[in-house]
Design goal:
Helix content is about 45%, strand content about 25%. It is an alpha+beta fold and about 200 residues long. It has one domain: CheC-like (Chemotaxis protein chec, 3-Layer(aba) Sandwich), CATH 3.40.1550. Strands 3, 4, 5, 6 and 9 form a 5-stranded antiparallel beta sheet that branches. It has a two-stranded antiparallel ribbon with strand order 1-8. Strands 2-7 form a two-stranded antiparallel sheet. Helix 1 crosses helix 4.
Length: about 200
């Protein structure tokens, strides 16, 4: 299986995986916030590193990134990205703190964001494992606060090992409150792992 010969059916499967995974993640987030969280229709895209940065607002946009490496039946990476206003919104809702967007994050704030990322990415991966019946092990999440170009440089290096493009599932979700809450899931298995996922679902 290669990036160049993926057909529309395979992309439909990727979109459905994104839909199911992000739905479980949104449910986990809603339980944490004790309020409804809606998700937008996920997109399965093939793009290069520069396009990926643009998807999250440009290379210089400040973001929070939660990165996990995957192994077992599925190798690769998963990253959850949110901009700083969304991260601060989550902290205000979870911790009931008077936190302004220009305030510095302390160790307690960072620990809370780390746990948020751990829970919602775990929910995403658990649904993927249940759907495919594949064993997926995830590393301890690593959190980074930096410009998008720097945060995405780690998966970009992995892209380079596979080719100049990567297949990704992008999901955006928001809540119904006054603050906007936007996030992006980037599921980045190796192409061999994509083949395993498709095979487990009877596609190839």
């Amino acid at each position: 299986m290669s990036q160049d010969n993926m057909n529309e059916m395979e992309f439909d499967v990727l979109r459905e995986i994104g839909n199911i995974g992000s739905g479980h993640a949104a449910t986990a987030l809603a339980k944490m916030l004790n309020q409804k969280v809606d998700i937008k229709v996920p997109k399965a895209v093939v793009c290069d590193f520069n396009a990926l940065c643009q998807m999250v607002g440009g290379e210089e946009k400040l973001v929070i990134g939660i990165l996990l490496t995957l192994d077992g039946d599925v190798d690769g990476m998963m990253m959850f990205i949110m901009d700083l206003p969304s991260a601060y919104s989550l902290l205000r809702k979870m911790m009931f703190v008077d936190l302004k967007d220009e305030d510095e994050l302390n160790e307690m704030h960072e620990s809370a964001l780390h746990e948020i990322g751990n829970i919602i990415t775990g929910a995403y991966l658990s649904s993927l494992s249940d759907l495919t019946k594949l064993k997926i092990n995830a590393s301890i999440p690593y959190m980074s606060r930096d410009m998008a170009g720097a945060v995405l440089s780690v998966p970009a290096i992995e892209f380079g090992k596979l080719g100049d493009k990567a297949v990704m599932i992008e999901t955006e979700f928001d809540d119904s409150g006054e603050d906007t809450l936007n996030g992006y899931f980037l599921l980045i298995p190796t192409m061999e792992s994509y083949g395993k996922i498709m095979s487990s679902l009877g596609i190839c």
